[in-house]
Amino acid sequence: MPALTHLVMSDNQAFAGAGLATLAKQAPLLARLDLSNSKVAAVAELAPLSTTLRSLDLSDTPAAKAEGYRETAFKLLPALESLDGRDAKGEEVDESEDSESEDEARSC
């Protein structure tokens, strides 16, 4: 699991809190994480992933309903480029290009 860079855990109601700290230890290269429709209650739960996480989806979570959610996420996670498919300015991000270039890099 140390080489894991992408993880989709959407609709997973058990994965939050301490599980995220464990994930950070087990997957130190994790760059893309989808926890949409999960029980993540606060962006602060993702602090252990702050140095590597570039793309995060927390749509339809309690955390996403909090006031100042987007601003907090981009401050807490300095490597973050995309939150719920949008950048820090709120503009839509096309992550398919990023995925294609990562696939090319792995095949070289």
Instruction: State the total count of DSSP E strands.
Output: 4
The biggest sheet amounts to: 4 strands, parallel
Q: Kindly state the percentage of residues in helix.
A: 25-40%
Shape: globular
Low-confidence stretches: 99-108
Q: In what range is the share of β-strand residues?
A: 5-15%
The H/E string reads EHEEHEH
Q: Count up the helices.
A: 3
CATH C-level label: Alpha Beta
Spatial sequence of strands, sheet with the most strands: 1-2-3-4
How many structural domains in the coordinates?
Answer: 1
Q: Mean pLDDT, rounded to whole units? A: 85
CATH H-level name... which superfamily? Ribonuclease Inhibitor
Radius of gyration, in angstroms, nearest whole number: 13 Å
CATH-derived topology: Leucine-rich repeat, LRR (right-handed beta-alpha superhelix)
Can you summarize this structure?
The protein has helices at 18-26, 69-76, 95-107; strands spanning 6-8, 32-34, 55-57, 82-83. With 108 residues, it is α/β, with parallel strands linked by helices.
Which terms would index this structure?
Leucine-rich repeat, LRR (right-handed beta-alpha superhelix); single chain; 28% helix; alpha/beta; 108 residues; four-stranded parallel sheet
What does this structure look like?
This protein has about 110 residues and is of the alpha/beta class. The chain has a single domain, classed as Alpha-Beta Horseshoe (Leucine-rich repeat, LRR (right-handed beta-alpha superhelix)). About 30% of the residues lie in helices and about 10% in strands. It is built from three helices and four strands; from the N terminus they run βαββαβα. The chain has helices at about 20-25, 70-75, 95-105, and strands at about 5-10, 30-35, 55, 80-85. A four-stranded parallel β-sheet has the order 1-2-3-4, with helices on one face. The radius of gyration is 13 Å and the shape is globular.
